[in-house]
Amino acid sequence: MYDFGYLLRALTAQQLPDNEADFFRLIRLFFPWIYDIKYIMRSVRTATPIRGGLQDLATYLQLSLVGQQHQAGSDSLTTSLAFFAIRSRFFEDSLEAEKFSGHIYGLNLHGSIAAVNSLFAGTSGSSIH
Prior knowledge:
EC 3.1.13.4, RNaseH_sf, cytoplasm, nuclease, transcription, globular
């Protein structure tokens, strides 16, 4: 979510919206096809619940990791590999766009936009409200 807030601010050179509905309108405008693997995995039924972050999911999916954890390139590659592994293993290589595209895990919670805005408070050039 914070990555999208940062990107939207950079792309629009404007303040982030004050509410999630407007935030999602911008998300869909700039990123019409987003799939959040954490959101997708919440719908998957497994014998053992999958908890944790990206590295835990990669271990569960038996993915070969490349590079250092928490580095942008390595995490991006791991996220991509995880997405395709999830799609193949749990969804027969087909995800319903209506059900999964455009959702971000953790949003629709009261105060999530305020949390993003607080990250940018006091930055030079423009504050976000």
